[in-house]
Amino acid sequence: MRRAARRRTRSRTQRPETSLFGKPFDGGKRMDHGGPQQQQHHPMEQQHQPYNPQHPAMMRLYEVQKEVASLGPQVCTFSGLQNDRDYKRLERELTRLLLEVDQVDTEGKPELQGARKRAAQEVEGLLRYLEENATHPSRVAIEQLSNEARQLVDERVVAPQRAGGVAEINDELVDALQEIVLRLTQVKTEGRVPLRKARYRALTRLCAVQDVIEGRTQQQTLSLPLSGDTHEAVHCINQVMVKVSVARSQLVALLMGLSGRDSCAHLSRILTEMQVELDALDVSGNAAIRNYRKQVVEEINGLLKHLDLEGEGDDTRRYDLAQNNSIREIEAVRAHVSHLREGILRHCAMGDLGFRPKAELQGMLTHLDQVDTAKNPCIREARRRAVVEVQAVITFLDLREALARRQPGPNEHPSHRAVWLVLGSLSDLQAQVLGFDGKRVDKSYMMLEELLTKQLLALDAVDPLGDETTKVARKQAVKFAQNILNYLDMKTDEWEY
Predict the structure, then answer these.
(1) Full-prediction pTM beyond 0.70?
(2) Which residue among 25, 42, 477, 491 is least crowded, i.e. fewest CB within 10 A of its CB?
(3) Among 107, 20, 125, which residue's Cα sits nearest to residue 63?
(4) Ramachandran region, residue 316 (left: φ > 0; alpha: ψ -120 to 50; beta: rest)
């Protein structure tokens, strides 16, 4: 029976998605504090000739509408996969409602048939939205990256610790995790709340693991001439440090879904007991030992703060960064940069080099440095991209000014002159790149990419003939051309926060 209903759901995918109220179903895109904006009036209020609301069929459709209203927000913010328990529950409930709507007897009356059709369309819309987000390529990509990080952490940190060994924490592991974080920030969400939420939750946990790994305190050995009692205190703190190391591994396992039977509440009790043990320790008034104990207590507190991530991601203000104050600051800077860039290009086209708002642009870089990213990788990436935009305009102005001031002497090395000719071409191309507003499939993009590549080849063909000045100039010109290419790629990679 359920399979028949699901086949019926797919067969109606071309129908307009409407609610019982006769309004389009928006698939959860209109959000207010994490839930869809539900209309609160009855399904037949917009009919010119309302049908009898006491009719058994209409009463049953009213009951379905209430259940749909309660399930809608859950569907529109569900960020998991098809094998998740909540997905199966929501699918089961919606399929049940669809079957109940099919069983409503309309007695062949058009008014009842219309109400039943709208009810079926709304339930089908929720089912479709639930399935689309759980199987969306971006959701699959998020899960694949999460699994990649999970496997890495399991091999390097969790498994060795459980086997009684030492976790393999080094720069290679830190760099590998950071690379996965960067790839996660580049996953497209198309503005869908469930995808944003899934990406945010994955990033939050992975960044927490990074923080736990990088913030560890090494066990200390104090070489001071201390009394036996004091040495006993150091021994006790070192024993706690061993427990902290185990707890750190347990926390990483929890964050990455490798915890087995461990729980946040259990680990929180263990860490709290360690704090009590340290508080009761007599450090004999020794400042060095007291500082050592303080470091360990701070590390325990650092672990405890990550134990509240179970509900992380339920607050739309966290994963819907369009409402984030830092993002708003960054977007304000980008809008101002865009305005200045247009003015600069307009003046350059007229041959006027007097418009040089370089001080204003430098002030924007200072402002961006002060933007609080709250350790959120998406905000960090948004800030980095804004900085690149500002720097691209500044380097364009600098090169234009250098070209205008250039006065080659009669004894200038031919190779050096050749580099400057390429720089002149690069300046013209950079003006086009700054003004480019298209996609990678556009012919103008491919033309710019090809022309920039030709300039790089021209620089490769320059033979310095042993002239050191030419070597330095060519190296700088190559870097400049590569930066323009990277900036063009950044403008067209359709990144979103």
Answers:
(1) no
(2) 42
(3) 20
(4) alpha
Which has the higher per-residue pLDDT, 484 or 4?
484
Tell me the C-alpha to C-alpha distance, in Å, between residue 246 and each of 163, 238, 452: 11, 13, 53
Q: What are phi and psi of 192, to 5 degrees?
A: -75, 130
Q: Which candidate, 403, 411, 384, places its Cα nearest to that of 477?
A: 403
Report whether 339 contacts 331 (CB < 8 A). no
Q: Which pLDDT score, from 0 to 100, does residue 123 have? A: 92
User: DSSP class of residue 323?
Assistant: G
CA-to-CA distance for 190 and 198, rounded, in angstroms? 13
d(CA 388, CA 449): 18
- Measured CA to CA, the distance from residue 380 to residue 178 in angstroms comes to 13
**Structural contact between residues 464 and 474, judged by C-beta atoms closer than 8 angstroms:** yes
CA 97, 103, 104, 109 dihedral sign is: positive
Q: Both tokens of residue 130?
A: 């639930």
Rounded Cα gap, residues 429 and 127, in angstroms? 50
- Which residue in 336, 233, 348 sits closest to 280, CA to CA? 233
Residue with tokens 């063009």: 488
For the beta carbon of residue 339, count every other beta carbon within 10 angstroms.
11
What distance in Å separates the CA atoms of residue 394 and residue 184, rounded to the nearest whole number?
Answer: 30
Contact in structure between 62 and 54 (CB atoms under 8 Å): no
The pairs formed by 57-63 with CB atoms below 8 angstroms and a separation of 24 or more are 57/104, 57/105, 57/106, 57/107, 57/112, 57/115, 57/116, 58/112, 58/115, 60/100, 60/104, 61/20, 61/101, 61/104, 61/115, 61/116, 61/119
> CA–CA separation, 243 vs 264, rounded Å?
16
pLDDT band at 46 (very low <50, low <70, confident <90, very high): very low
Q: In sequence order, what are the residues at sequence separation of 6 or more whose Cβ sits closer than 8 angstroms to the Cβ of residue 402?
A: 423
According to DSSP H, which parts of 259-324 are helical? 264-279, 287-304, 316-319
Give percent above pLDDT 70 in the chain: 80
**244 and 299 in contact (C-beta within 8 Å)?**
yes
Phi, psi of 24 (to 5 degrees): -65, 145
Coil, helix or strand at residue 32: strand
Helices 377-405, 171-185: crossing angle, 10 deg rounding: 90
What the block records as the tokens of 117 is: 């059709």
Name the phi and psi angles at 123, rounded to 5: -65, -40
